[in-house]
Prior knowledge:
The complex is a heterotrimer of chains A (95), B (258) and C (338).
Chain A: E1 8-14, E2 22-28, H1 32-43, E3 51-56, H2 68-72
Antiparallel strand pairs in A: 1-2, 1-3
Chain B: H1 12-32, H2 41-69, H3 75-80, H4 91-94, H5 100-121, H6 127-155, H7 159-172, H8 184-191, H9 202-215, H10 238-246, H11 248-252
Chain C: H1 18-32, H2 45-70, H3 79-104, H4 110-118, H5 135-156, H6 162-190, H7 194-213, H8 225-230, H9 238-256, E1 266-268, E2 273-275, H10 281-291, H11 295-337
Antiparallel strand pairs in C: 1-2
Helix pairs in contact in C: 2-3, 3-6, 5-6, 5-7, 5-9
Amino acid sequence: MAEPKIPLWEVFIRSRNGLAHKHVGSLHAADAAMALQAARDVYTRRGEGLSLWVVPSAAIVASDPADKEVMFEPTASKIYRHPTFYEVPDEVGHM
Amino acid sequence: MPTTSLSLTETPLLAGILALADDALILGHRLSEWCGHAPMLEEDIALANIALDCVGQARAFYAYAAEVAGEGLSEDDFAYRREAGQYRNCLLVEQPNGDFAATIVRQVLVSAFIDPYYRALMASRDATLAAIAAKAEKETAYHLRHSGEWLIRLGDGTDESHARARAALDELWPYTGELFEVDAAEAALIEAGTLPDPRTLRAEFDATLDHILGEATLARPPGTWMQSGGRAGRHSEHLGFILSDLQYLQRAHPGAAW
Amino acid sequence: MYTQALNARDTTAPVAGPEEAARAARFQARIDAEERIEPNDWMPEAYRRTLTRQISQHAHSEIVGMLPEGNWITRAPTLKRKAALLAKVQDEAGHGLYLYSAAETLGTSREELFDQLLAGRAKYSSIFNYPTLTWADIGAIGWLVDGAAIMNQIPLCRCSYGPYARAMIRVCKEESFHQRQGYEIMLTLCRGTPEQKAMAQDALNRWWWPCLMMFGPPDAESQHSDQSAKWKIKRFSNDELRQKFVDATVPQGQYLGLTFPDPDLAYDEAAGHWRYGAIDWEEFKQVLAGNGPCNRQRMKQRRDAHAAGAWVREAAMAHAAKRARRAAAKADALQQAA
């Protein structure tokens, strides 16, 4: 008998108010309500979270590692986006 | 600890606390039997969480019982040194785990009762009981949600799961009557505002259950005959086996520390 | 962990040409530079296979390991011990879950990995094929088995494969209470009645040698070590880890006032190591071959639990499908009404 595959979900936790949800792991559940309960039971046993997201793994669209250079290298030369690119005399003080 | 079973003079208050403690301990013990054998890994963890909540509630109530009883007793004296006949838990919590449907139905029935009970207990004139209830109620609200969601899936899942859920409900239903019984000692505590009156929670219990059962395409069984006796120490055969596991080491090595 | 869609294997047959060699060289260069390999990155098939095998064995060990300790949850001697043991065995289920998730990022589903275990095609740690006969075994497992596991797992937090390393960080963090829990049980027994102390000694006698075997065969006979070291999956050899474990554990046992069941155990001043006697590798081979005291029992319990849960998993899936159909029908009805 072929066992039906129970869908995979990704779990995100917001640890404290003000911080963004962070990926913590995954789990299997048949539907969204069960996934949320399982996320609570599996990933917040030590007071890790105040808020949970579960997302079907299949819904995540990821960048292709082969595109890494095309996607992320062009930004390296745009140093004018960083504050240290600009010179402000010390006498002006903190800016 | 001494070698013998505890001999207690039970005041109504002590008996009332022990009933709450024993319900939590025996249910937690039963749920802990699942650990390593659940239908999926996620559920091993979920059932263990519920079991840990129950054991924690039992410890809080036993600690209070020890305080009330005096005589230098500890939580473990109550759990490990009473005979089955001294246990005051209801019959429902000692029923075997059976298949997953039986465990889930038992959990729904207990949680649908105990969650509103704890909510009412939060208003107790006894500050310790009110504080324990405030912590426990958050746990039981989750137990009800968790087991309720599962019962909906089992009832409205496959033909097999529906049949199993229905059989479990038929099997366990006769143990629900005891949840609402009140004896003379308890009546005095209710009168004093120490414990809530379970009879006033019947409507909420029925409504919670009907909602879950409706979604699960199940219904309350028609039978009206109810089993009874646990609160008075007349248990099913199962409790003796539970206690022989639970108390084995303490009984075999009297007085030893662990 | 992460999307499975992109984790499809590179099905193009590895061309043993210059292009393949160049890819492999780039891969090795990343490992040498201590970069982490992530699920969607190119990796040699052998790396994928090795990791899938190792991570899934590790996961299987966690869930089979729940059984010997689970034996004592209902018999724990105090409510505090009962809660601690239940929480510990629960953690092992969690660790199995994290590890299966890490293995799944390599393209094999949990169901397939489970099937491999239940069909007897996958291995798990030899240690869990020994019985837990007394309460002291719960102490000995926490102190010795978890102690040995930690030796092995701490270096794995720096494993070259990102999801495995991250799972191990979480596992190590959670496991820090396990060994202390076990040692505290041993300490209580050793300070208790003569019967309790004898129970502790008996547990050490039975668990000591199987624990030394947990680190695997001696370096001279280990099949996988060289390549695993090159890939930074394994950073210390079996014998190195075993020695670390012995050095850390012997003083702890002496503090308990227990005697190790090894007449050859002696401190080597010059080297600063405890030297141990000859390990019975024949016993190890027999246990791995399925002839340990509990191999069949453990596998039967796993198979029974899986089989008994099949209707539950089917029900959950059937209900999810019904819900999806109802939601779709409702959406259709709304659209038609509009």
